[in-house]
Design brief:
Number of domains: 1
Mean pLDDT: 87
Low-confidence stretches: none
Shape: rod-shaped
Number of strands: 0
Order of helices and strands: HH
Length: 68
Amino acid sequence: MGIGASVFLLAVGAILAFAVDYTVSGVDINVVGGILMVAGAVGLLMTTLVFGRDRRGDTVVTEERIVR
């Protein structure tokens, strides 16, 4: 799951949890929103941990100047 999908899940979960005032029989919209927010937060954390390792700068770049 990428950063965009995680932020999308967080946003949809927050909308369902805090802004929607609708009842569906057998489904609690607030709980669904909370679950989506948790899933988005976990996805954002995992994406940051996994892709953060690739961009640490472990490689050494050397520069050689040729003077003529």
